[in-house]
Write a structure and sequence with these properties.
The protein is built from eleven helices and twelve strands. With 251 residues, the chain is α/β, with parallel strands linked by helices. The protein has a single domain, classed as Alpha-Beta Barrel (TIM Barrel). Strand 2 and strand 3 form a beta hairpin. It is globular and about 45 Å long.
């Protein structure tokens, strides 16, 4: 059995780590490199860095930041934001990223997933999906959650898997930053139809929320931001609690 993973997420804007609620009310919380070092020392399994304004501002993720991160941490990290070509992906991998994450560009041009997977291998590509429930269906959103991607979630995840993605990082915009728990039923349903790993994002407020999405939701990894950034949950304490509940986790 593959161990479950705990992944802090660092949203980056203008060189700083930031956090918001439902993708709004953005506030600065720290330096992305020093925070990454701290999380690595605390026992995080991986890190995710997302340049949240890159697509909207039409620029690529800063390569020098990726180089700094790679030089200072010793755990795998994924980088996303503004990656729209295979050349962008290549530059980030060369700069030291272990994986790259595509979102808006993949919705616009799904062949990008296949191209990156074919050239570098599925293990190097994560498709990040921002989804919003409108009362009837889960809609895929793009450009930092500001535009409709014109795709229904379940249709999109099936295509993403078919195109060779290594992992799917799904964020519920309805739950993001609320600290009221992940949409566990959604992740359980997705896990029943997908064979690729699913990273759950959006809504962590307690250790029990993370335990629920890893067990009842059957997610392969739990990603969170606020609870780690503000010290609500300590990674070492969280992993010990999960281990004591019988969840396969690396201590």
């Amino acid at each position: 059995m593959v161990a479950k993973r705990i992944i802090p997420c660092l949203d980056v804007r203008d060189g700083s780590t930031v956090k918001g609620i439902n993708f709004n009310d953005i506030t600065r919380v720290g330096d992305p490199v020093s925070m990454g070092i701290r999380y690595s020392e605390q026992g995080a399994d991986e890190l995710v860095y997302l340049d949240i304004s890159a697509t909207r501002e039409g620029r690529s993720t800063f390569l020098n930041l990726v180089t700094q991160i790679a030089s200072n941490i010793n755990i795998p990290f994924t980088v996303g934001g503004g990656i729209s070509t295979i050349e962008h992906a290549a530059d980030l991998l060369k700069a030291g990223a272990d994986k790259i994450s595509v979102n808006s560009a993949a919705v616009k041009s799904p062949s990008l997933i296949s191209e990156i997977a074919s050239k570098y291998g599925s293990q190097y590509i994560v498709v990040a999906i921002d989804a919003k429930f409108d009362g009837e269906k889960w809609e895929v959103m793009t450009h930092g959650g500001t535009k409709s991607g014109g795709r229904e979630l379940f249709d999109w995840v099936n295509e993403v898997q078919m195109r060779g993605v290594g992992e799917i990082l799904l964020t519920s915009m309805n739950h993001d930053g609320t600290k009221e728990g992940y949409p566990v039923e959604l992740f359980r349903e997705l896990s029943s139809i997908l064979t690729v790993p699913i990273i759950a994002s959006g809504g962590a407020g307690s250790a029990s929320h993370i335990a629920d999405v890893l067990t009842e939701g059957r997610a392969d990894a739990a990603l969170a931001a606020s609870v780690f950034h503000y010290g609500t949950i300590k990674i070492a304490d969280l992993k010990r609690e999960l281990f004591n509940q019988g969840i396969d986790i690396r201590l």
